[in-house]
Structure formats: C-alpha cells, structure tokens
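Quick question about two entries, pasted in order.
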Amino acid sequence: MQDNNAKMYGIDLASGRANLIAGTLRLNGSEDTASVNAIGFNFKDQYLYGFRKESKQVVRIEQTVEGETIHYDSTALNVSGLPEGIHFFVGDVKVSGDAPAEGETDNRTSSYFIYNKGRGLFEIPLSNDLNAPLTATKQPGSESWSTTIYDFAFHPITNKLYAMESDGDLFEISLEPNSTPELVTRLDIGTDTGAFGAAYFGVQDVYDEATGETTENIIFYVSNNNSGNIFKVDLTNVPDDKSGYNPTTEIFTLGPKSGQNDGARCAIAKVEVTDESMDFGDAPLPYRSALDNNGARHVFDPNQDSQNLIFLGDSVDGENINTSSDMNIDYSDSSDDGVILATDFAAGLTAQVIVTASQASTLYAWFDWNQDGNFSEDEKAIDKVNLTQGSNSILIDVPEDATNGNSWARFRVTDGQEATLTAYGAVQGGEVEDYEFETYGSESYPGQNDWVTLAYEDRWPYLGDSDFNDLVLHYRTIKYFSSEGVTSYRIEGEILGVGASFHNGFAVRLYEKDVDSGLVKVLSAEQIDSLNSSLFINGQAVSETIIEPNRTEAIAIVAPDIWDHINVQNGCEYFRTEVNCDVNAKVTFSMTLPLKTALSPESAPGSMLDPFIFASSDHYHGDAITDGNYRGLEVHLKNQVPTEAFNTALFSVAADDASNQSESLYFQTENGIPFALAIGAPWRHPHERVDINSAYDKFADFATSNGKSAPLWYNTVNTNITIQFGAEQ
C-alpha cells in the first residue's frame, strides 16, 4: 500500500515485479482519496486490515466484483479505546491456534495490532462480530518503548513480533505484559538508509544438499522506502537466548520506492516462482542458482510486451527453479549462447571473452577463481561495463593465485539503472548466463607481461635495404597446462610497423629446437584441435582456417597477407615506418590452439616456437620466384630450419643468402647478417630505407660475431632515424 491517495500494488517476491492492483480504494461504495497504512493480512478470514489516516479509523479491506470490474472496498470498524487524533502506521494481524482439518470448525482467533511510538501497542480482536463495537486494549508498558520502527510482522509459528530500525537493528517483541523489544542483532543493510516501511513473513522451501531433504523455512521480509530493496532474513529457529545468534540479511529482490509504504502478505503462504519470464542462473550447487538460496534471476520481459528485451546471444527463456533440488534434474540452459570464452584462462594472464548483446546494455561477470562454489564480490571480473548491440570484446585479468581446474563463471546483463549488482538476487529486465570454464597453469615466453620484438627483411634471398622494418611486431607465446600435461597454446602479438612493398603473410610453426642438445620438438597438424581453435585480430574473430591445410607440421597462419589488416596514415606510403607516420594504432592479434590430447611437458615445444613470414599468393615477390610457388618463400630467424612448405630450390638462387643445409646454417649472409631479428626488449625500428647499421652502429659487431660481441647492441640507437617504441603507442 503506497502514496497519500492509497494505491494497492501486488509484489511478486520471487521476481520483484510490481503490478498495480488498485489505483484507488473505495469507502462505503465511493472512491476514497485517503491514505491507508499499518496494513496486515488475516489469513483466517482472508481480509486485509489497515488504518485510515484522515479519519483515524481501523478499516477492513475486501475484494468485490461488479460485473467485470474488480474493486477494493474498505469498511470502517467501530473501535474504541484508541487515543484520539493519533495516526497509526505500524500494524499487522496475529492468528492464534492450529489450522482446522478439513471439515472441522475453525477455532483460531485473530487480532489486529497497531503501534505508535509514545502511545503504545494496541490489540483489536477480530474473531467476533465486526459489525459490533470493538475495544482496543493497550499492552502495558508499550508506551515507553524507545525503538523507532515503521512496520512489524508476526512470526507465524511463535506469534512474536519482529521489526527493523533504519540502521538495521532487528528487534523481537513479545506480547507479555511490560516486556520491551529485544535486540536480536544488527543486520548489514549496506548503504540503505531511512524507513523500512513494509514488513511481512513468508514460507520458503529450502533444499539441504547434505541430506537431500527439503524443509519449510520461515523468512522475514522488510522493504526499504527509499531504495525499494526488499531484504530477507531467515528466522526459522530463533533461540530464546540471543547471545551468539547472528542471522544475516541480503537483498532478495527490488520493489517500488515510495515515501509512504506499507506491506502485508499471508504469513503461511510459500514464496514460489510464478512468473514465466523468469530466467535463472544455471551453475550447479553450491552456487546460488535457485529461489531458495536467493539465486541470480531476471524477469527478462518486465513490461510483459516482448518488446526491447535485453539479453545475451540470440534468445532468452524462463525456467522455474524454486529449490536447489530442481538443479539436480538439469542445470543446462539452451539459451545461454551470448558469451564466447575466446581464449584459455591461465593464472596471472589476460583472457578474452566475446559477448553478444541484443542492444546497448550493461554487463557484470563473476569468475569463481578459487573454486569454492561461491561468486564472491572480489571475484567480480566485469563490473558495470557498457555493451553495444552485437559483438563486444572484453579482456579479463586472471589472478595469479587462481586455482587450476574446472570452475564456473556468471554473466548478468541489465539496463544499467541499478547502482551496483551482486551475483545473486532478482533484477527486472536482462538475463543471467552461467558458463563452465577451466583455469590452467601457464608458461609464457618471454614473460606474462613482456614482449619479444620480431623484425623481418622480406627480400630474401637478397638482403635488400637492410632497414629491418618490412614487418615489425611484438610477440609472445603462452603454453597452458593442467594436471594431465600441456593442453593448449596461445600466440599473441602487436604489429608495429610494415615497411614492405611486397605482400607478406605471418605464421608460426609449433616447433622448438634445443640449442644445446639439438633435440627437436614439433607438433603435427593432427595434434591440434582445429575445430576449437580461434584467432582474433583487433578483437574481431577471424573465420579463415588457422592450421595450414595439407601439411604434416602444425603451421598456424596468423595472416595470409598482413596488408589486409593495416590502415596506412594519410600521406604515408607504409605503416609506421616513415617520418611523421607513426601515430597509427597497433594491430593486435591473439590465437588459441587447443590440443586434442594433452602432451607431457618434455615433448611439447615452447619458448619462441618458430615465427616466420612468407610470400603472399598472387602478389609479385621478387625475381627469385619463377614457378609461381609464392608460399614456398619463407623468412625465418637465423639458423632456423624452414617448414615443409619451403621451396628448397630457393637456396640455389645466386644472391646474398649463404644458407648451408649440411652445416645447419639458414637465413644469413656470408658475414652472418640475419634476415630476421628477435630482440628481447622494446625496440625502435629504423625509418624506411635506413640501413640498420646507421641506426644501430653496434649491430654489425653483434651479427658478424654470432652474438659474442655487443650483445646489447640495441641500446645504442640514433633516435633521429628510428620510430619510437611500439610499447609507447
């Protein structure tokens, strides 16, 4: 009951949906503009009782039907014994005695209780003829109670009153003469302030996973006028001795806000799901996904018109999950289709999810990193992030102490009107989707937050202009493992510069050769789970085949032609290799390659793997290619054996390359100058057509000595003829 001109709303406690039942009440058959407060429901005679403010009268409210019109009529009762001119806004109905068996006489008694601070608690009997005069009796000593309460409710079993002050103090009130309200505990109500103007009890089925039994618990509900938040407290078994008794509260659902607010319900009626547009979470016990543990739930069609619905993926549907035992039947939901876990989740690293939204909306997500079966607030990985209609790429930092193994994540999408959101409770509009995921251990090269810089000359077997900026990129590999062994790979990078007129592709062979032992570790294409592999460039999924077809070796193609993914700055010929042409955004890529079967760490390649460039098909790539086999031209790091796709006839071309297969010398000149570099630090690449020796005067010493001289050659740089660090962009 709300507003100065009393309006009656029905609140579905499970969903929080509020429906206007009566825009006005009637008194003696005519529209009544007065306010009514202190309402209580008498579950013996099925009437509401309240106190009419303007006339200071107790009224009984009943539903009447005239034709097809439903009215709510109030009838003033003739009550004496109340203080003159005093308004009561705190009230409820107590029903005493056992419910009769079918066919037996109902001998229960009922009374309407109202309270005013300073005036006291008054009882008005309702079991006799209500058309006759009634006498209110004051409970002795109640006029001196110091508690400031705005509503109370009778416990349906003990018939004790319970009320909550605005600071969260929960009180129990006995009807014994000269008793005083007893503080039960101070409840944590968060940031809510002001009056709790509506209080009532209900019964809720609660499933005990340990015993497999369902019990009926007695729940106390209170509604805050300012926020509309409806809190719940389980008061099933309140001990006489309150020391050490600390019940807890939490927001159960959200009702309407109001400056004048009161509420009542049948205290012995169950709170159950009745709304067909209720979407629940699907994570299994002990996660909170059912009504009995205040699980996450959304009324996805709050206006009941199927218009402008907010959801994830292609659709949303509802389900009735009253108790956690319902989760044992089937906790899958076919409409959970809005989130793609695009990359593996490894402790200490960043993962990516792709979220598809039906319209502009707001997203929250929790990941159970410690696998304790609870989505705690410190596990909130996405907090009120704005989504656009369609696909959204979101990065998630996985904690370094995340537990390896299977766990669950919860995503909730809303219209964003809420101040904040927890992983449980009811929301009007939106959807909740739960996903199982696996957290892995990881091994990163060169480090989880570090890059190695790769730089290529693409005119091999000719040295070209030696500016080493035909392709420049940051590069990192990550190897994931579980208790079974290595399970997948992730390859990440940022394209920092493209100074090539030729068209080049970039690829990585899953290959490693131990420098000291000569042991080769290489994966075959058959070992890669190609169907579940993924590639994202600038956050967008790429649909092309990732593992190169018709190869024995596992060769992952990042891009068949780098030029397809870069935009050249206006007035520039190349991408971030010319003077005043270095402001373009970097091009990012992330590739995930799961294995069909886990490998032992000893047999799985790691570290750098084998990143290389190759000539793009159908584009001129120099005079060395005479047979149209563009893919056969590859450029690898120094002394890296090429892939099976390489055209070995190119080793015979008279040029600058001095590769010698019999001596395992590859991709270097006679003086040891490489055609590709791996620099273990951020690196300023030379301007277009600037020889690397001009930019780095110690480079030749390093290259011709096989790395024995000037190992830190890249620290001595002419900044006037180089592009700023890619890491600074």
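Here is the second entry:
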Amino acid sequence: MSTLAISKRIWSLCHVLRDDGIVYHKYLSELTYLLFLKAASETGKDDLLPQGYRWEDLTSQASPGMLGFYRKMLTSLGEDADKEIVREIFRFPTTVFNHEENLRKVVEGIDEIDWHEAMSDGLGAVYESLLQRNASEARSGAGQYFTPRPLVDAMVQLLQPDLGETIQDPAAGTAGFLISAQSYVFERHDSAAYARNPPHFQAVEIEGDTYRLCLMNMFLHGMQGKVIHGDALTHDAEELTSPNVIIANPPFGTSVGGARARRDDLPFKTSNKQFMFLQHIVQSLSAGGRAAVVLPDNVLFEENVGREIRTWLMDQCDLHTILRLPVGIFYAQGVKTNVLFFTKISEVATKSTQNVWVYDLRAQMPSFGKTRPLTERDFAPFVKAFGPDPLGAGNRKDEGEEGRFRKFTRQEIAAWGDNLDISWLRNGEADGDLTELDDIAVAILSHLRSALAEIEAVKDELADLKSAEA
C-alpha cells in the first residue's frame, strides 16, 4: 500500500468521530498518539515505551476496558516514560474519544493497514501527507501553521542549507521548513558525510497541540534537534545559539496579546508581532547568516517604527530579494504576503543593502485554491531568475516594466521613504475565475483582511507614537 493510499485510509477513519463532534485538528492530535505507538512497533523501537504501554498492549485489550486502559496509557506515557521525546509528545494528553467502540474502530483500522511499502518512503512521509490533508480542510483552521510545500521547498532550495550549519525556525508549526531543509542536505551528501557533520536544527512553537505535531513529524523523519515549547518573542528561546540559516513563516496577525513579559533586547519597541519576529531573526542570525521569511504586505509599507525597522534591516543585512507571493496560497487565510531573502552582515554594519531585486509572482496570476493548487512549476521561473548564489549575488537580469523581475537601487528605495511595497505590473488577478465555495470564501477573506491590515497598521502607528511620547 502506497504512502498516499495509507494516508487516505487513515484520514477516512475520521468519519468515525464526526458523531462525537470532533474537528479535524483534534483528530490529527489523537492520531499522533496512536501513530507514535504504531510507528514504534513497526520500526522496532518499542524500547522507547515502558512495558505494558505499547501498541500490542492496546490492541489486545478486551471490551469493555480499552478506553479506560487508553486513558491510563496516555497519562503514564506523558509522566513516567524514560525518554524525553515520549514524555513531550504525550505531554498533558487528552483524548477526544468518548465511546469505546469509536476508539476500537480507529485502532483496528490502523492495525489492519499493510505498512510494508510505506516503510520504504518512511513513516514521516505518511504523517506529512496527513498534515497536508488536515491543512487543506477549510474547517480545520490548520492553515495558520501550514505553509504550502512548493513554497517551502523553493525557499529551502534558494537558501542552500548545508552540513554542519545551524538551521532555525522560530515559528516552527509542524516543522515543515526544517524537514525540507534536512531532505535538501541529505540528498546532496552521502550518508557517511551526513552522519559525521549533520546540520543542527532549532525550533520554537508556542501552541501546545502544534508543538506535539512538530515533535512527531521530526521524530518520524529521524531528526534530532532543539525544540522549544514556547514563544520566541519572550525569553523562552534565550538558550538557542546563533544560527547560520533562519527560514520561517511567522503567524499572521498584528498586535501582540497576553500578559507575559516580552523581550527587552529588541532594538525597536512595537506591538506588531511581525516586526518583532523580523527583529528576532536579524538579531539571532550569525554574521554571514542567511534568512528567508514570509511576511505580510503591511511590514513593507507601515510608517514610523515600521520604516525605522526596514532601514535598520537594510543597514545590518543585505536585503537582496523580495518575492511577492500570489493571493490565496495559504489555506484559510486571505493575507497578501511576501518572502524576504537577506544576508546578515553584522550588528554594526551600515548601508549593507545596495540593491533590492523584486520578483512579482502576484500580478497577472491565476487565483489559487482547491481548484488551482500551487505547484513547484509556479516557482520555477523565480528560482531560475534568483540564480545559483544563496546570497543573491549571481548574474541577474532586470526584465524591465513588462517583466516580473526588476532591480531597485538603495537610493530609489530611500526616495520612497524606505517603502518596500513595490509593484509595477498591472494587476490581473481575477476572483471571477473561482467556482469552489471554499475558494470564493478565501478570496472574500483576502479583501477583508487587506482592509483590516491597513486599519491595524494605522492603529499600531498611533500606539507606537503614544509610546514614544510617554
């Protein structure tokens, strides 16, 4: 049975829980518990689990009694397992199963699958497929932490992570960027070289269930690294070392909430968490380090402290490339976004950015969604135009006003008030092409969110002005 077939089979078991009102995201969290137990059994790693709390112990439970045993099993694994990875994955566990017959149906469904063929691709491929399926369900709300795979792979390909480098994602979600980076490095070196000098992975994830998915995804892909359950905008991530590569898609939204103390080491005080993440990334990078970060449009044009942060970014770093992303590529989101590619020069550098190349993949593009998903082919022209140098210093061609790729000097950008929201192609987006209700809803949401982003940008500017006057 192929990876895709197994993923489809497992996902089909979700209908068992619909009568209990279980949403997709909760179903995936529950699957994480069960698949970890099954994976340990299939891969000969049962020794990770204490005796009496393994897959075979669960499947052998008679009725009634399986649900009670399962609840006890989850609690014991979260509190008493010897291995930290097990305790973390089963940390504060809760089960969505309210009826034993539903649990038994799902357990038997997983147990009946022939896992032999999937083992050749790795169980991580099955889990990754489940994560993608979860994100594609508009009702799941999972798009907030899932970046489309073609975009992830393109960003990783252009940054070219390598052996021995430290690679960080400060808003890791389900670890998609880090897993893609691992695959990129592994495919370009033999296994012996990789084993002698592997890359070092760092991840920070604030949301508890997503942190669990992140750990599980990395475990099934055979990855080890420093994974923190916390907030990179607080002092939770202080122990992380300076990375060579940062690749991230910080969560959408502007104002920071919560009562926890925020970091006091960021140079610019702002309530906008995208600007806070950008400062964290610039400060964290080692000299010569490379970054690719997905950020919404308002980061490119917001005034006052927003402008100061962009100026600071272009001083300390060579902001060599901006990719304007198409609308509708993020599930359940309508935010207009960009990828900023930059190289850290130093913390005392000035005028590090001489030219900014902008590639417009938004204007005159089809409407992306379920009926027209994003593919690797959509990024191929940009990857070619970017060139082979991960620092953006290769031989590039300005395509002029009719093309998608153009160069703008630092002097031109300064004349525009360091506004980086640069476009020149006539916008040919057409919402009228949409036919699926989910796609239409995303298009409407896009327009609403664009308006909201502008309103919140004004609100943030006023808040920052009041703070400066205080």
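Reply: The longest strand covers residues 317-324. The beta strands are 166-169, 200-205, 225-229, 245-248, 290-296, 317-324, 337-344, 355-360, 405-409. Hope that helps.
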